[in-house]
Amino acid sequence: MKKIFALMMAVTMGFGLISCSSQTPGNAEAETPVDQASEAATSESTSNTYTVGICQLVQHEALDAATQGFKDALTEEFGSSITFDEQNAQGDPNTCNTIVNSFVSSNVDLILANATPALQSAASGTNEIPILGTSVTEYGVALEISDFNGTVGGNISGTSDLAPLDQQAAMVKELFPDAKNVGLIYCSSEANSQYQVDTVQVELEKLGYTCKQYAFSDSNDLSAVGTTAVSESEVIYVPTDNTVASSAEMLNNICQPAGVPIIAGEEGICAGCGVATLSISYYDLGVATGKMAIKILSGESNISEMPIEYAPQFTKKYNADLCEALNVTIPDDYIPVETQ
Prior knowledge:
The structure is a single chain. The chain has 14 helices and 13 strands. By secondary structure, it is an alpha/beta fold. The strands form 2 sheets. A 7-stranded mixed sheet has the order 7-6-8-9-10-12-13, with helices on both faces. Helix 14 (320-325) links the parallel strand 12 and strand 13 (335-336). The radius of gyration is 30 Å and the shape is elongated.
């Protein structure tokens, strides 16, 4: 009986040790399935990373500023969780197609299309990946939407750099009231440039000017077209045209010696060859586009329901050096453009 009792005591103590060994150090309780699920959800919510493809048509001051503003807004929000695949088409729309196709192949989370040809390539390249345009003047024209109402729909939205074209025409009248002939120079391959010069021409003709359009196909024939325009015009108007922007020095070398001033559609062109402009901040436009991207990536907004956004304000600016060289008097409400 004593042996049986001793054996029973030994078994009881063994079960007690097994029970104690199942506790965590410090007598803490083991994690429950609920705790584990909570930790997993927390880890998932803080580990999201995003890759954004940036297709920029050409390198020049305005587009560069828009891209930088876009990147700064996203980096401020997501920090190291955001990665940019930034590529420049060097002014070639066909290269935009190649760039967009690479973004689609790598399945980026969002595409920034900087300038109209980049937007057109992105729209042709994917109907699934969200696309935000910037530095695009008129989305209805760029995407051939006949009944455009301010919202593209589908997987496309963005920001517009359109300044009030009637006010740009009024600027010609304000600075050159005695001129009679205005030449409008633009790149024929940019749909939004055609839209701008058509609209400005109507406004200028209302003010009594005689207008003639001078289209060039690319930078190679800008010199010849510009020389003809200068010989037949007292004032030149150029819209927010990316090819003109990248060739502003060439155009200035034609117009300034001839004494013909240029009214520019945006600040970067004005800094290179214009006497004045009614312009926006392209950096701020990029920031606004970045804020739209944040809402899309975070799931806060559906891109198909996001209307095109516009610059909040416009500023009269002038190129002090060119105004002095051409003896152009500028009213007090203009501010100087920063030139290099």
